[in-house]
Specification:
By secondary structure, the protein is mainly alpha-helical. Helices cover about 60% and strands about 5% of the residues. It has 2 domains: about 35-250, no CATH class; about 265-305 and about 320-325, no CATH class. A hairpin with a 7-residue loop joins strand 1 and strand 2 (about 295-300). The protein starts with 11 loop residues before the first helix and ends in an 11-residue tail after the last helix.
């Protein structure tokens, strides 16, 4: 078919393909980043053992008819623990779908991670293409899927709940941008779904990214008047309401947790680190970890404890223990 200028117009299917090619490139790039997940092998990251067990437990509870699992009767050495009451469950809910469909748990976890990487790239494209164009959105989507921190969460830390939040964040930002710029209940609802998914992914990541969400509302609403900001804040509130099934019980039962233990014992590193910084004894360098590649990490320039002292904190590093154990 020829246009008014006499030049042939592309067919409708060809036009759709031309519009979709940046998305296809982003998907291919994300699949390339997820290459090590193919084959059904477990990623040997820091938290690699936690997520298959939790996924299997979550899927088992769903199969038993529990619609919103909170108590895990088979974890905690068989005594049970309320892991899904205080830990956002979205990743485990997503990974439970292929698990219940018959895939092995490790393969289900890997498949979920592949989907998250694809979602991260596409979400970044959706967030940036309106301002940067299709070419700019393509570059941003590929860069985000291959971002070092995203791959660090996946392949080194195996922080899969945080990975879920990182991959959902672009969708939440894109949804808020659309809700602020144009009126419509559907846009507000879409933004609320993105915010609620973020809340159900990782609590620390939600706290860290909250200023970005508010900043997106403020930046997008500049020039659109008070109505745009109201729509953005309404989407935030609705997202919190949708995720209330998780955070309300967690807040109500918060008194059952022992937060004071985060600041004592082996995890109480605040004072040693501050002292090391003050005396210039904190160094960043490579260290050899048994069974792993060389890892970049922080080290204290102090005497290395003896081999008998490294493994026994109660008998060796207690106040009445050996004198050669560092404090």
């Amino acid at each position: 078919m020829a246009g008014l200028d006499g030049h042939p117009r592309p067919a409708p299917d060809a036009r759709r393909l031309l519009r979709a090619w940046p998305l296809l490139v982003v998907v291919v790039a994300a699949l390339a980043a997820a290459g090590p997940l193919v084959g059904g092998r477990m990623v040997l990251g820091h938290d690699a053992l936690e997520h298959p067990m939790r996924t299997a437990e979550y899927a088992r509870l769903l199969a038993a008819g529990v619609p919103w699992p909170q108590w895990s009767p088979n974890l905690g050495h068989g005594y049970g623990e309320p892991i899904f009451l205080f830990n956002p469950p979205l990743f485990y809910a997503l990974a439970s779908v292929p698990t219940l469909a018959g895939l092995p748990v490790v393969s289900a976890v890997n498949l979920t991670c592949v989907g998250l990487l694809i979602a991260a790239g596409l979400g970044t494209y959706a967030c940036t293409a309106p301002a940067l164009g299709r070419a700019g959105g393509l570059v941003a989507g590929v860069a985000y899927a291959w971002a070092p921190y995203v791959l660090l969460d996946l392949y080194v830390r195996q922080a899969l709940t945080e990975l879920t939040a990182v991959c959902i964040l672009p969708w939440a930002l894109a949804g808020l941008d659309q809700a602020v710029r144009a009126p419509g209940g559907r846009r507000v609802a879409g933004a609320a779904l993105g915010v609620s998914a973020l809340l159900l992914s990782s609590t620390p990541a939600t706290v860290v990214t909250a200023p970005a969400l508010l900043g997106q509302i403020a930046a997008s609403g500049w020039g659109y008047g008070r109505a745009g900001w109201v729509r953005g804040l309404a989407a935030l509130a609705l997202g919190g309401l949708l995720a209330s099934a998780f955070w309300v019980p967690a807040v109500v039962e918060r008194h059952l947790l022992r937060f004071d233990r985060l600041l004592t014992g082996w995890t109480g590193l605040r004072q040693p680190l501050l002292g090391a910084v003050a005396t210039g004894q904190l160094h960043l360098g490579l260290r050899d970890v048994p069974g792993r590649a060389r890892t970049i990490g922080w080290a204290l320039a102090s005497e290395r404890p003896s081999s008998s002292c490294r493994l026994s904190r109660s008998s060796c590093c207690s106040p009445g223990g050996r004198a050669d154990c560092p404090t």
